[in-house]
Structures are given as structure tokens and as C-alpha cells.
Amino acid sequence: MQREKALVGAICAVIVVSALAALLVPGVLASDDDPGSAPAVESSSVSFTELTVQPADISGATATFAVDARLEHRGGAAENLSIEYRAVDEDTGMVETTVRQDVPDVSGDREVSTVTNVSVARQGDYRLETIVYRTDRRIVEGHTALNNVGSLTPAYADTPVDFHRFGSEFSGGEFPVVEYSVEEVSDDRAELDVSAYLTNTGDDPESDLRVVLLARQSDSNVIADRKSIDVETLGPGRSATPEATLTVADDYNYYLDAVLWRDGSIVGNAREPAQLDPTREVGENTTEEDVEFRSDDFSADDGEFESADNGDNGDSGADNGADGAAGDAGDNGADAADSSQPGFGVAVGVAALVGALIAAARRGRFR
């Protein structure tokens, strides 16, 4: 009997406590169908979908990248999110840059994008570590690589104009980017007509261009002469040939350097050799011997090469040719040998001497 009384008392106590809780804490006993009932707390998840990197601003010393982190959200609202980026140098393992960006609250099942600028020194390779935090608690992380940062072109040097590179699959080699011819040789001085080729491969005209041509002695690196040439506005898809005359000491070898300037900055360069005292290797070792070369054999008359007339001058050219042949036959006969092609004077003289010796030997044999 005592046990039954105790059980009834316990049940009554539970009923009283439940009633008091219902009165003091509204909604505890509310059903799910009650519009005023408190919503249940739903969990949420965040994961990486994609991480892309694009150059945003490249200067001489710094490269800035726009990092786009795309997050996949599922479940209830995600609050107090932030993303931290750390650029770690691949060679030293040291952190170069740390950037932290807050992410707006996310609700609903969807993908969100957060773009942040990250700057590093414009050299070396980096590992870009990306960490997502929720209220300072790490929930997801990933990484990507930033390689060959030093190869990115700074904004001040970003131009579609460059020295034209020739190439031919049939010739098996390349034409020189910087060309030269010998204008005149006198008093051990050679005047070189040096030219380079520029091409605008872009879609817009380019202006404020300048080319500096230098003759640098190959053994000593001494600059023998230099000239600066302003280049007019170069239209899209157009080419130009800046040229100048450089005077150097004869019987030396040189490098002909062409340096392209744009708006006060160097944006390109090219180099070709000019051998006025050439040598060649002999045998299997590195011994060299001189190659007979006279720069004055290749100099142009009056510093320029003649060009043929075309078009309507064909008939008059024929008439003048006939008159010139009749009138100049006597006067220019002595000069015919001197007007031969450059470099062949010595060869013709040697051939004539050999022929004379053979004829003399034959006359002595038959006497």
C-alpha cells in the first residue's frame, strides 16, 4: 500500500512540473503544425568547387592575381565564413603573403563565388594555400600552384610590337633580325648601314617607339658607336625598318645590338654578329686561322645600292642602254674590271695569272 502511494505521488509530481514548464517556457510543447513553433536547427556544409587564378596587375617587382574561390553550400544558413590565402615560396617554404577575406552569409543550396586579390614578388614559384573558416574554425582547405611568375610581362612592357623573327623551313635556318651592309671603308674605319625589323602584331596602332642601334666589339664589349632612331606610329599588322649608319674600326668583330624602347621603357632587344675579321676552326681542336676578308670589297658605291627602274621607263631604259653601250665603250673599258661584283677581284686575278703561266710553259715545250 505504501508502494502504491509513492508511485501515485511521483506521477502527480511529474504532471505538476510539466504544467509549470508549459506556462513558463512558451512553445516547449508546441507541435510541428503550430505556426508559432520554433524552427529546428538545420546543419550546413561548405566545400570547394573550383579555384581559379588570373593575373590582375603586373609591375616590375610585384605580380597581383585575382583568385576566384567557388564554394558549394548545402543545408542551413552558413554564417561567419572567411577565406584565408597564403602564398608559400616553393624554394624556401616561407610564407610570402597572407590575405584573409570575409564571406557574406550563405543560405540555400547553391554555389557562391568570392574574388580576392593576392600579391607576390614577381619571381620564383609559389603554392597558394586556401583555407575556409567558420567562426575561426577550419572547415575546408585546398591549394594550387603559381609557377613561372617571373615570366609574366609587366604592364609597362606589354606591347604587341617586337623585332620580327624570320624563319624558313626550306632554308633550314633563320634570317638575321639585325642586318648590315658596308657603306664605305677608309683610313681603317668602316661605315656600316645597320637596320632592324619591327612588326606590330596587335589590333591597335602603337606609338612612342624608339630603336637604339649599337656596335659592340665582341672581345671587349666596348661600344664602338650607337644611334637612336624614332619610329613613327606603327599600325596594326604593319612593319617598319629603322636604320642608321654606325662607324667602327675595321678588322674587328662586333655584335650589332638593337634595343626597342616604348614610352621610356625597354620592351625588346635583338642581337646579330658582324664579323669584319672572321676566323675558322682547323682540324679537331679549337685552333683557329684567319679568313681572308676585306670589308671594302663589299662596300657600296657612294654609300648606297642602285635600284632598277620599273614601269613606263622600260622603253627609254632600252634606248639609254644602247646609247650607253656605244658611248661608254671606250671610256669605261679600263674600269670594267673594277666594276665587277664585290669579292671577285682577287679570284679573277689569280685565274689570269695561272692561265699565263700555263701558256708560257706550253710555248717553251714546243720550241
From TrEMBL:
<feature type="compositionally biased region" description="Acidic residues">
    <location>
        <begin position="298"/>
        <end position="309"/>
    </location>
</feature>
<feature type="transmembrane region" description="Helical">
    <location>
        <begin position="343"/>
        <end position="361"/>
    </location>
</feature>
<dbReference type="Pfam" id="PF24318">
    <property type="entry name" value="DUF7490"/>
</dbReference>
<keyword id="KW-0732">Signal</keyword>
<dbReference type="InterPro" id="IPR026371">
    <property type="entry name" value="PGF_CTERM"/>
</dbReference>
<keyword id="KW-0472">Membrane</keyword>
<dbReference type="GO" id="GO:0030115">
    <property type="term" value="C:S-layer"/>
</dbReference>
<feature type="domain" description="DUF7490">
    <location>
        <begin position="177"/>
        <end position="271"/>
    </location>
</feature>
<dbReference type="GO" id="GO:0005886">
    <property type="term" value="C:plasma membrane"/>
</dbReference>
<dbReference type="InterPro" id="IPR055913">
    <property type="entry name" value="DUF7490"/>
</dbReference>
<feature type="compositionally biased region" description="Low complexity">
    <location>
        <begin position="310"/>
        <end position="341"/>
    </location>
</feature>
<keyword id="KW-1133">Transmembrane helix</keyword>
<keyword id="KW-0812">Transmembrane</keyword>
<feature type="domain" description="DUF7490">
    <location>
        <begin position="46"/>
        <end position="149"/>
    </location>
</feature>
<protein>
    <submittedName>
        <fullName>PGF-CTERM sorting domain-containing protein</fullName>
    </submittedName>
</protein>
<feature type="region of interest" description="Disordered">
    <location>
        <begin position="272"/>
        <end position="341"/>
    </location>
</feature>
